Amino acid sequence: MTTVAQPPAARSKLGVWLMATRPKTLWAGIVPVMMGTAMAYELGQLHIASAVCCLFVAMTMQIGANFANDYFDFINAVDDPDRLGPLRATQAGLIAPQTMRRAFILTFALAGGLSLYLCYRGGPWLAVVAALAIAAGILYTAGPLPLGYIGLGDLFAFIFFGPVATAGTFYMQTLQLPVAAIIAGIGPGLFSVAMITVNNLRDVDGDREKGKRTMAVLLGPGFAKWEYVTALTGACLIPVALCMMTGANHAAMISAVVLLAALPSIGKVFHQRGTPLNQVLATTGKLQLLYAVLFVIGWNW
Asked: 0.85 exceeded by the pTM?
């Protein structure tokens, strides 16, 4: 089995913690905020304080989930020296388990604290949304039935890093919740599904051995490959459908060209396995950023 190279002995503490945040995947939290803010700006209702707060809440939620995933995958013995994915700080001994546990608790506490402003501006019901998002981030790999271990990780990532984050950002600035903002969130949600799918496809053999029942394990690698294609295709069709529905902002359809840029990654998903898919994961994050940038420009053209 091919293994990931171990880290050099000399690594700064800051570098270790930065690695543990999984920076190449953080666009999943940034992109929906960008898109929701762009839609609010187009209506002349940009609210900077709310936009910035939404961004920090999304980022702390995702980093907290990554820290919790790092910790619980180690505790559950899912991560080991033979893992094919990027290095995990707890498993590699770079961060003590109890330290990582404190880190994800503090990060989620920060996310909850920042959410208080959102509740103040948008209503106390948003506390329920924040609590559910935090619970999903922890229960993704924690508890007797972790969501990511029973094939539900894709669904919850889609919900919270898609329609909830995008429409929530739009709502916090405009105090309105139109169907268009919810539909727009389907795009980044599907990109999140695509990134999880690459992870699951890369780790399918090891996950099967350890009893981790991801969608790739439950339905097979062939399903995961087509899930990746379907997620990217669906995401790129959302701006087209959205512009047809609203009869406006047609320039936003340019974000659909990202599907052409995704063709090399799709080819690799179908023809490669194991560690080469780490590069596909990083590229998918970049494609999501490109998608968002084109959407933001096009929506406000």
From this structure: yes
